[in-house]
Amino acid sequence: MGLNSLEVHRWTGVRETPPDQEGKHTMTVFRRKASATRTLTIGTSLGTLAATLMLATPASAQSQDGAAQTSAGVKVPDPAGSSSTAANPNEGVGAADRRSDNAAVTGDVTAAQNETNAQAAGAAAEAATGDPAEGDIVVTGFRRSLENAVVEKKTRDQIVESISAEDIGKLPDASIAESIARLPGLTSQRVSGRSQTISIRGFAPDFSTTLLNGREQTSTSDNRQVEFDQYPSEVVNQVLVYKTPQASIVGQGLAGTVDLRTIRPIEFGRRVISIGGRGTYTDVDKFNPDSKRWGYRVNGTYVDQFLDDRLGVSLAASYIDEPYQFREYRSGGYSTNGPNGAFLVGFPTARGTSTRLKRFGGAGTVEFRPVPEFTSTIDAFYSDFKDLQSRRGVELPLGFGVGDFFGTTFNPATATVTDGVVTAGSFGGVQALVRNDAQRNTAKLYSFGWNNAYKGDDGWNALLDLSYSRTNRSEFSFESYAGTGRGRTRGVNETISFTTNNTGSIFTPQLDYTNPNLFVLTDPAGYGGDIVQAGYFNDRRLTDEIYQVRTEVEKVIEDFFLSGVRVGMNYTRREKTLTPNEAFVTLPNGAQETPIPSQFLLGTFDIGYAFNGIGRALAYNPFDLLNAGVLTLLPRTNANDVLAKAFSVKEDVMTSYVQGNIRQPIGSAELTGNFGVQFVATEQKSTGLIFGPTGTFSQTQGTDYLDVLPSANLSLRLANDFVFRAGVAREIARPRLDDLRIALSYGVDTSSTPPIIRGSAGNANLRPYRATAVDATIEKYFGNSGYIAVQGYYKDLTSFIYRDQERVFDYGGLPAPINAGLLTTSIGTIRQPVNVGGGKLYGVELAGTLPIGRLVGALDGFGLTGGGSYTKTEIRQSPTAPVTDLPGYSRWVANGTAYFEKYGINLRGSVRYRSTFLGELVGFGANRDFRRARDELIVDGQIGYDFNAGFLKGLSVYVQGQNLTDEPFATEENRNELQVSEYQKYGRRYLAGATFKF
Description:
- This protein is mainly β.
- It has a single domain (about 265-995), classed as Beta Barrel (Maltoporin, Chain A), CATH 2.40.170.20.
- The longest helix is centred in the first third of the chain and has 19 residues, at about 110-130.
- Mean pLDDT is about 85; it is low at about 1-75 and about 115-140.
- The strands form 7 sheets. The protein has a 22-stranded antiparallel β-barrel. The chain has a 5-stranded mixed sheet with strand order 4-9-10-7-8.
- The protein contains 11 helices and 51 strands.
- A hairpin with a 4-residue loop joins strand 12 and strand 13.
- About 10% of the residues lie in helices and about 55% in strands.
- The termini are close together.
């Protein structure tokens, strides 16, 4: 028993009858427990009766600090109060009172207060009669987690979705991203087999923001988007997603705002120690000899209060060491060298990737309340993240290799053409390239916050909040090449036949790729020209910092339509810097080829399903070869294309706001909500390198602008548990930070006739995405146990950033690029992001949580939760341009979970579906690459048991299965399933673990 581990069904009323002939009163207590009521006969003691009535009344079960209490003053856990409102600058000091007042319209309270009321009334009945009260219905964690989510949605004035830990230190899924992706209207994109980024209502992660305890966070990406695998689920108690903005929320996004929240120990209200662990197993065999199939994670949480509950402490930590494996096929594009211009597989790669994720994460909170009116809270979060990858495979210069450079030939007589794609044929003169690559992504994230809140008895409240967040990331990629010789004139060539279907191409080679006497370290494809390029080295270093200072004053007004006013200011400074370091990997002493030393061979690796016959190749660790001097580096420190990737962006944002809160009875209903306006003044500066005729020099460019963002949220709450909501707002999403870079990279496009210069650059003068949004919902609740909601939304984007706008550009004043002798003019083209066009995005969502046992008593313990959404986009870069897909946009998104939870048993199965979307992936040189992804249906499941009695009380055990149908991640070109761009298979993952709480 503990946080989110119990649910006691709501007491629906206490009724006292007149005294009978013997002068005794009869009190009827209505319970959900049985169809009949239970009648208790008690004496005429008015004190006992008054205490019982008081304790059974929801409005009296809330203490001053938000924690629920029994008549004896003994606190019980209040999950909503322990993370939802306390010490969160976006909530305001009076937020808990407003939510309690909203709940009082229908007589509902939080889950913990329900439990308290039942306990208190039962204790009062036992005291009056001398007999123990019958046991209350108790159900375990996931249902309690759903009830807390219902309470969040019902009692807030905005449109929100939420999840909370089903038990302390345990979210309902294996990761935060997977849990968030199950919320209505949300979905995720998988990277390396795990959910990493979140899309809200069809928008890419660029359009939403992520907060930790109400404060903006730095990120490990080149942009603002948070990669959620940085945050251990065990240290997060609740996730709240705002779908509509309000004036007092700082750092909100255009699509929505995700707020990760940790435990508030004083509000939590009692001591808890929890420890847990789990093992992980992947069902696919090892692709690489240095990979693993087994992993583990451990976690612990401690919450306690001291000094008569004036001091609270919570600590949580998690460590993970888990493997991820996937097979991958990449086409490398499609040439038109097939018969009659048919598409021909270009430069395919078949490889297997083994990832080892190591992460330590910790969070801590200290709350100090010396007097009831003042609370000071200090938060800290730390994450040390390591993603270690071994990526090995074979590249084949096929369709793009036809011609003089690679010397590959294609026999058209062997070709089979289907829907304009060559689906079978034979290549000759092929010289394969064997790759042994390693990647080490490391990141450290620090976050600190200090919140000081004053809550006066006269209705005046105030807060001061200071925070700091920093991320240091290194993305280290090391490629190593081997072949039969350098270039087609020295190496052994072969004939390769192939067939193509909707999963990619399958090749039939002739050579033995496991023969160390045949394959040597070299530049088989001739990538380096005059340089023997035996690989490539790329080390990208990123630093991201955010400072925030916020202050607010609130005045609560009693018995008036305007129930309160909040006025505040927030200053944010953000600085993000990317420094690239790239080099050619070469052979010492000018060697053309070098044998792979036998002492460094690790055996062989599995090329994958794309190779028939010989499916393995030589394996080694390229770092071992570099450390031994077998390979060496040729730095490209002054190369223009490398220098152009660097950027340093600084933002200073001053946000001022005023918000009025509304509360107005309308008959038996009540109108609640808020209205207000934000004034957001932004100054952005970007520093980078300019390549001028006299050399390279640093320059700073930028701009400043003001956004005025009005918003209003109204909720009409009816006594029959209907809630009608409407929201309207002006919204913005700031430009990507990497789009603000000013450096220009360019080169000669020899495929054009005649050759011309093409380049790309950022734009330091970008303005935000801007939209006017309207939202409306109809929600029907079933107490605190379930709901059904229909939600509609419409966004009119008046300013949109189109990232790939091409225009004419004169390169005459810049240094001449390579192959400049082929040019007839210095006039070329440049692609850069610009503010253009706009458009509309609108859709509808259906969501709900249905405890089936409330409808059919025989099915007590069964339930459903989930939702589906349909979104239509009409974004255009100009009024006459065709519709452009947003990255991450899926027209259909749906998810659902069926569960059974009773007698300590918990079972659940979940599905997630998203229709086709434009996926954002990492391409060559760590550049962004957009590819059309196919629809996905992912199935997960869990079986568990909670011990609620005996010496094992507090122990929970569970087994989970992820991606049970082995759903692939696949992308394609030209909406043609035969033009597979990428096809990844992750396999299934099984997890078994336990948590123990005492």
